[in-house]
Amino acid sequence: MMEPIKLAIAKGRLAKQSIVLMEKAGVDCSVLKENNRKLIFSMPEENLEIILLKAMDVPTYVEHGAVDMGIVGKDILMEQKKQLYEVLDLGIGKCRFAIAGKPDAMNDRKHLRVSTKFTNVAKKYFATRGQSVEIIKQEGSVELAPLMGLSHVILDIVETGNTLRDNGLVVFEEVADISARLVVNRVSFKTKKKQIYEIIDLFSSVI
Amino acid sequence: MRAKKVLLPEGVQDLLINDCRYRRHIEEKLMECFIQAGYMEVSSPTLEYYDLFSSDYLSFKRNKMFKLIDTDGEILVLRPDGTVPIVRMVSTKMKNFVYPLKLCYVENVFRIDEEQAGKKREFRQAGVELFGIPSHKGDAEVIITAIESLKNLGLQNFQIELGQAKLLRDILQRLNIDYEDKQDIGRYIEEKNFIELDRLVESLDIEIDVKEVLKALPRLFGQAEEVFADVKALPLKPYMLEAIEDLERVWQMVDDYGFGKYITLDLGMFTMMKYYSGIIFKGFTKDLGVVLLSGGRYDGMMKDFGMDIPATGFVFIVNKITKALKIQEKLMLKKKNHILLIQDNKRTWKREIVEGLRKKGNIVELCLLEDRHEILEYIKRRQIDEVFRMDQKGEIEIIEDWGEI
Question: ipTM of the assembly?
Answer without folding.
Answer: 0.78
